[in-house]
Amino acid sequence: MLLLLGRLLSAFFGPVMGRLLDSQGFKKLFLIGSFLAMTGILLYIIFAQKLSIALIVIFHVMFMTGFGMMYNNSMTIGLQ
């Protein structure tokens, strides 16, 4: 249940990021998405000994937002 919010946001961002891909291009979204995903993972590592439920949810939402920006758009570009 802790990871549900991040997964729902990732599912919501699919169509939104698709529209942004059409208007902004791939490079900008991929850079922002990879920065968010990497930041989420690094925060997991940095705070590994002091993780609370709130921090797990926040870091997971950050990671899944970045992942949603990268993965769906990279699959679209790859299929083209």
Structure explained in plain terms:
The chain is mainly alpha-helical and 80 residues long. Helices cover 86% and strands 0% of the residues. The chain is built from 3 helices and no strands. It has helices at residues 4-24, 26-46, 53-79. 24% of the residues are buried.
Q: Give the number of DSSP strands.
A: 0
Anisotropy-based shape: elongated
Stretches with pLDDT under 50, minimum 5 residues: none
Query: What is the succession of H and E elements?
Result: HHH
> Major sheet, described briefly?
none
Query: Beta fraction of the residues?
Result: under 5%
Structural class: mainly alpha
Rounded Rg: 13 Å
The average pLDDT is 87
Number of helices: 3
Helix residue percentage: over 70%
Between the first and last Cα atoms, what is the distance in angstroms?
A: 36 Å
Summarize the structure.
With 80 residues, the chain is an all-alpha fold. Helix content is 86%, strand content 0%.
List the helices and strands and how they pair.
Blueprint: H1 4-24, H2 26-46, H3 53-79
Helix pairs in contact: 1-2, 1-3, 2-3
Keywords:
mainly alpha, elongated, 86% helix, 80 residues
